[in-house]
Specification:
The chain is built from 8 helices and no strands. The protein is mostly helical. It folds into 2 domains: 67 residues, lambda repressor-like DNA-binding domains (434 Repressor (Amino-terminal Domain)), CATH 1.10.260; 49 residues, no CATH class. Helix 2 crosses helix 3.
């Protein structure tokens, strides 16, 4: 169960994301990489707020994790470097795509261990296969 004060702020966050950002339940679940029922359980206080969720709120939507947990400060973080924010969002989307494709995470782990020479050979082979 989530602390009642934290739950009020979570509800405020989801209300903000739905009304101001125009996101629906399905879009929210996609942004966070969870099921729609997980979003519902977060809003109802049935799921505990995780560090991962808080970091996603901060990195994707500029929502202060400190505000969510303690109520201190403002809900919205000041806009920082939008380039790095966009880059981080693109990285998160890529990571979600990697996690959805069966076996791809394992393949990436193997590729990370290869020498530059072997990695170049694999890249050339992949490009050749892709062009067919």
């Amino acid at each position: 169960m989530t602390d009642p004060q934290v739950l009020k702020r979570i509800v405020a966050v989801f209300t903000y994301l739905k009304t101001t950002k125009g996101l629906n339940q399905k879009q929210l679940s996609s942004e966070f990489g969870v099921s729609e029922s997980t979003i519902t359980r977060l809003q109802n206080g049935q799921n505990t707020v995780t560090l991962r969720f808080l970091k996603q709120l901060q990195s994707i939507f500029d929502i202060s994790d400190d505000w969510v947990l303690t109520g201190r400060g403002e809900m919205l973080l000041p806009k920082g470097n939008t380039d790095s924010s966009i880059e981080l969002e693109e990285d998160l989307k890529l990571l979600r795509r990697i996690r959805k494709k069966k076996g791809l995470s394992d393949l990436i782990e193997i590729l990370l261990k290869l020498s530059d020479r072997n990695l170049s050979a694999i890249q050339a082979l992949a490009e050749k296969l892709h062009s067919k």
